[in-house]
Amino acid sequence: MKKDTVVCGLLVALGSIVLSAVVVAGFMLLFALSPVDNLKFFVLSFVAPVVLLRYYVKKLQYMSAAKGVALALFGTMLPFIILLARMGQIL
Residue 71's Cα: distance from chain center in Å? Predict the structure, then answer.
């Protein structure tokens, strides 16, 4: 499979978001915090795709994969922000 494709970027970004969210949820459960009441901590799961996006653009110059990462980042962050706003945890 060619690595400089939009689909590859989407898959890698979604995988990093899910993995980061699982790690954040694990730490929250470890410290006995309720994940539903503290959804704003899950914004940390969007750090990995941002770093990945920078790596694809600057270091590897995989522009198609970077488009996939950006698409996944926008497609997951926007609903997350809307969810936080509706639950009254931001704004």
Answer: 11
